[in-house]
Task: structure prediction
Amino acid sequence: MRKLYIIVLVLIVISCDSEVNKKKKESVRETPAMNTEIDNKVASLLSEMTLEEKVGQMTQITLDVVTKGDNQFSSAQPYELDSALVHKAIHTYKVGSILNTPGVPLSRQDWYKTIKTFQDEAAKTPRQIPIIYGIDAIHGVNYTIGATLFPQQIGLAATFNKDLVREAAKISAYETRASSIPWNFSPVLGLGRNPLWPRLWETFGEDVYLGKTMGVAMVEGYQGTLGDPNTVASCMKHYLGYSVPLSGKDRTPAWIPERELRQYFLPAFKEAVDAGSVTLMINSGEINGVPVHASKFLLTDVLRGELGFQGIAVTDWADINYLHTRHKVAETIKDAIKISVNAGIDMSMVPHDFEFSELLVELVKEGSVSEETINDAVSRILKVKMQLGLFENPVTDPKKYPDFGSKKFAEVSKKAALESFTLLKNNNNILPIAEKSKILVTGPTANTMRSLNGGWSYNWQGSEADNYAKDKNTIADAFTKSGNTTFIQGVSFDGENNINEAVKAAKQSDVILLCLGENSYTETPGNINSILLPKDQIELTKALAKTGKKIILVLLEGRPIIFNEIEPLVDAVYMGYLPGNYGADALVDLLFGLENPSGRLPINYPKHPHAFVNYNHKHSDNIAVPNYYESDYDQQYEFGDGLSYTSFKYSDLSLSATQMTQDGSIKVSVKVTNTGNRKGKEAVLLFVSDLYASITPEVRALKGYEKIALNAGESKVVSFTITKDELSFVNESLETIAESGEFEISIGDLKKKFELK
Ligand code: BGC
Result:
């Protein structure tokens, strides 16, 4: 028996090993020979370069600097490049990189013309080093007219479907290249653990395992085989700890013990580095009083030393200057440049002037920054340019990308939206509704593309989505087209309100589709002082509830806006996140039951404004005397929640062993049966609880998930492999360890224990 056990174990190890190898082969995009060839080319090019040329490569400016207009902070419309300024940037300052939009989205032809102009100019310089153009194509190439816009990352996380995320990223890469751009500032690998933070929706939610696995899928989708003109360089951001400012406001200080940095925030970056991501952007904020742009520890010791990252580390927007003007750790801008370059940045997103280049040349000449440091940074930049094939093919031609904005891509976006919508309440199975139902569509998010797309859509704040996505359906459009619908705004974001009219229309309807939530925003403009649902939205809901009609609430929002005051008044709740340009079409199919929901919450949805707790909380977060001390763990909805129109039964949870050694593994399997009468998809989530540990253990933590499709009556067995990795945490000495003792696996409502030796 023991022998058999050993053989089985060996087989498991072999199969895990081959999995690991396969992963490595897929993710390491070049053979060692290619690498040497590129490294040799880089070394030889570098040896010919002047200091000014090198520093130019480390400089990234924003597009406004080289366009016609009043100044370097904006572009006149219609947008046009200024050839004298282009010449100055590329010839005088020898800049290596340009980013961003001129404030409006461009057509593919305009992108092509713009980037071709830069590359033609760069080809006239002595070294002919191509420019690397970077863009925030965070949910599709959102600054190109006619592009396919997907759900934002938080919605993609809610799909719990890695394959779909990889596919969406692949399409985004293709369309980015169809816009002649080879570098995408995505994905965000920070964890959305503070509900107030205005960029929570740019994350994959609050969980480490979900975030790191989705991050890898996205990097794989973007990069494919680097050098293939259908793929782009990804950019892991924002390294490290950006997502949890204590105040919840963007770019304000975070306080994160190193133990937590390592356990919660580092893994997604580590996995993405291992998956081959070639660039990284740095957190604009400060952690424990140290701005990350000034942290040699994080930028060199951890990033290069421990994670082995060899790609480009680019600053975020103007962040070197902020070391002087905001964080006050540098007495002058020059000092700030010295600190940051010596800490380990490779490229400065300056972005408005050439002071960085001028002062950095001085610093090297004075000996405050070594030429070796500069050489390291420039080598990394040149290497990525070569890996991307920019030397041979500096600009991709939109004509070669016939699938841009195609119907088949739109279908993938709609599929992602369908799988992201998360049904959180469905009293008396009010949903799906009958096709003939008379519907009142109302609420501030009902008739705007802004609330479907969020920020980084057509422009930074997403404020032009209604102009540029005119041909796409708002919720009001989609329901009006599909049948018996009246739309009355009720309450709008600009303060107009016709609640009485909405109530009147409600009385004539069978059901109310109430669309609440937020307008589009990102970064500092998205900061809020209150996370409560605004008063006018509450008022509208209460007035509608008095009609006695059934209310289906749809939330379009980038963070969990607290609505406990009206939650009892609604019969069904769909969390829609920011589902993109096809979100409204997806919602029609879901509400009428043409499709079955399968999204799961990737965050805890708080119930109370001063009681934020993540789902993987500590036992002492719940000192429960419910309804008395208010120190109970009381969420509106919990991470992983999500209903279906069918029902799933979990059974036969089995573990391959009841004991595991440190280098062993355990196979977990569970049977899932669709016990309802319609087909559906189910995200099967596996949680692990370490029952006792030297650092207080989390109540539970996600360690595996898989999305399966089941016809009515059908069953499938889903298996997971648990190794030491899934049982580890970072201890007081900052070591990642798994402590021997009892662990509990839970899937659905089933639980089983085993012992780690
Ligand atoms: C944001 C980044 C973004 C960069 C370039 C910054 O303000 O923090 O996420 O990639 O701008 O647009």
